[in-house]
Amino acid sequence: GGSLLSPDGELIWRVERHQEITWTPRAGHVDAVIIGDFAEDKHVDPLAFLAAGSAGVWVVDALTGKVRDIHYVGHAQGLSFGDFRPDTPGLEVLCGCRWDNYGILNIFSGRGERLLTFQPDSVCERGVPVNWTGDGEELILIATSSRSIGLWDGYGRKVVTFPVEDLPEKRTDYYRGGESGCIDIYGDERDEIYFCSGGKIHFFTQSK
Questions:
Q1: Which of 48, 149, 174, 197 has a CB 3.0–4.6 Å from the CB of 62, allowing a cystine?
Q2: From CA 181, how far away is CA 53, in angstroms rounded?
Q3: Does residue 177 register a pLDDT over 70?
Q4: Using CA atoms, how far apart are residues 86 and 49, in angstroms rounded to an integer?
């Protein structure tokens, strides 16, 4: 991992200082990568965010592979992005942790600055962006325990709770193999939430 290839399979760049990822215990490879114009600033974009296990989160110039920043957050594992803070320029990047650091989530600005660290529980390692209100702000779906299950905002606060205890399966963890997520069913600006269990799919939508 940590390399950009052309459509013909030719190496364009390998991330600067890639040996640090290879040699770091419990790293050795990149678990997840996202690349894009997250900062919405032509002097910064495009950037690549690399979740490199115990080597941390690497923020990289996506044109050259040069390192812009490294954040040692624990065992960086899963990545997603969304407009979690509409009052902040660009998009935000969410990274979860695993292996000895379960449940620690970090939110980065589109420029690669760490904005927030929070821990909804000691299980989750990522979050799904959800357009719940339709006003442009995206929330984070976490569904790993009774403590965390719900939608969280870009400031680490749980703002929506789903009554999953009323479902026939009476479970509060829906995170294995796509057991939870979001989809726009009604065709408006907002997403609905689904939970899968026992061969059934349960949907939750806004009350208004």
A1: 48
A2: 24
A3: no
A4: 20
- Torsion-angle region of 146 (φ positive above 0: left; ψ -120 to 50: alpha; else: beta): alpha
Asked if residue 149 lies in contact with residue 124, where contact means CB atoms within 8 angstroms, the answer is: no
Q: Alpha-carbon torsion 43, 79, 12, 9, what sign?
A: negative
| Residues 30/19, Cβ–Cβ less than 8 Å | no
Q: Report if pTM > 0.85.
A: yes
Q: How many residues does the chain have?
A: 208
List phi, psi (to 5°) of 140. Answer: -115, 120
Q: Which of the four pLDDT bands, split at 50, 70 and 90, describes residue 160? A: very high
The distance in angstroms from the start CA to the end CA of the chain is 45
| pLDDT beyond 80 at 175 | no
Q: Long-range contacts made by residues 64-71, C-beta under 8 angstroms, separation at least 24? A: 64/13, 65/4, 65/12, 65/13, 65/14, 65/15, 65/16, 66/16, 67/15, 67/16, 67/17, 68/112, 69/112, 69/113, 71/106, 71/108, 71/114
pLDDT in tens, 187-197: 888 999 998 87
Partners of 129 in the β-ladder: 140
pLDDT tens readout for residues 37-89: 999 999 999 999 999 999 999 999 999 999 999 999 999 999 999 999 998 99
